[in-house]
Amino acid sequence: MKPIRLPEPPGSPPRGVPDIFEGGVYGVVKRAVIIGNGFPASENQSIGLVRALGLSERQTLYRVTRPRGGINEWMHWLPVSVHKQIYYIIRLISQVLFTSRGSKVQSLTGENGGGVGLSSILEADVRSIVTMARGSAEKEGPLLVVACGRDTISIASSIRKLASENVFVVQIQHPRSQLSRFDLVITPQHDYYALTPQAQEQVPKFLRKYITPDEPPNKNVVLTIGALHQVDSAALRSAAIAWHDEFAPLPKPLIVVNIGGPTSRCRYGTDLAKQLTTYLNSVLDSCGSVRISFSRRTPDKVATIVRKELGDLPKVYIWDGEEPNPHMGHLAWADAFIVTADSVSMLSETCSTGKPVYVVGAERCKWKFGEFHKTLRERGLVRPFTGLEDMSESWSYPPLNDTAEAANRVHEALAERGWRLRP
């Protein structure tokens, strides 16, 4: 297979002009704060953007923690601040009741991250971040703040409101309202699906406002095809070296199968698992090696069927979930991918390689996720997996480069403000 040359991440603007003519240190962004929510799919987008901007070595991760477990699972639709207030009231009442009865008070919850390693993650406290941004601005310059996910919206917008002269705030994923609260919003174009003619026919009117904003994107919105991530040419080169001994000897073509899990917009069960295993059995003759990975969301019943049908075949290896995770090695060494349709993140990463990507289950996705798959097909990034393919035949396309393109837009937006990035 002919190697695909991936575009490099955007570099810094030319540095031939002294800082004094570009706002001095006050206008040079040299550090970043990431506001996370404890979910890898969201935090990976923020980390990927900061990486593409060249600030990975000067980034700090803060995390919005939400009570979890027990009754808390019924309150995740509430804003974080309201959820926490209700939780602490319930906990206080429980302590009073159980203490008065002489019983030992049980811990009601953990926090995002499962309570493991949270001591190394800073709590996303607006006041402390604002104080830091203001207090260090003269010496360190302005602060780039990158947030992703619903739980981070209020934190990021509050930071901008209180320290607008010292921060540039990027919100990834659409906040659904009041875009003016952020300097830049980066979101997939399928978030605006409800404004398309197809959605006017398919989505009941009373539901549209819950799916996407009611107004078209304005000038501070950057539209992407998929999700941002950390997969760039440098990361793939490093992974190719790190995983050389394990993957280089494998018979070619090497086919990597990534299996996610059903979502509310891409529903499936054991039926899709049976379809996938049947199709894989049909193309095994044209495969040199097959490596299969499950995600955290993969239902046990789906994984069980895949292991039962394919686990004993000599060409097939199923990753057992133990570290180290071979995901980056798969991206670097695979000749082609087969991916279930449910994960925008997995598809975005595989489509950034320029290698063949086959999708299974896209017909089960509806509304905006159906629109996402339609866009991928129309751009020639993916093809449906039918079980009739000759996997030794290769095809390619211009790699999906959303993260680098979004980073370029950040450069432009900073320049409009009179600021610039300097790693």
Describe the structure.
- The protein has two domains: 25-64 and 124-225 and 404-421, Rossmann fold; 233-399, Rossmann fold (3-Layer(aba) Sandwich), CATH 3.40.50.2000.
- Helix content is 36%, strand content 15%.
- It has helices at 40-52, 80-100, 126-140, 153-162, 197-202, 205-211, 233-242, 244-247, 270-283, 300-310, 327-333, 344-351, 367-378, 402-416, and strands at residues 28-29, 32-36, 59-63, 122-123, 143-148, 167-172, 184-188, 221-224, 254-259, 289-294, 316-318, 336-340, 357-360, 383-384, 420-421.
- The strands form three sheets. The protein has a seven-stranded parallel beta sheet, sandwiched between helices. Strands 11-10-9-12-13-14 form a six-stranded parallel beta sheet, sandwiched between helices. Strands 1-15 form a two-stranded parallel ribbon.
- Helix 2 links the parallel strand 3 (59-63) and strand 4 (122-123).
- The two termini are 36 Å apart.
- Mean pLDDT is 86; it is low at 1-5, 10-23, 103-110 and 113-120.
Features:
423 residues; alpha/beta; Rossmann fold; 7-stranded parallel β-sheet; 6-stranded parallel β-sheet; 14 helices; 36% helix; 15% strand; Elm1-like; Mitochondrial fission protein ELM1
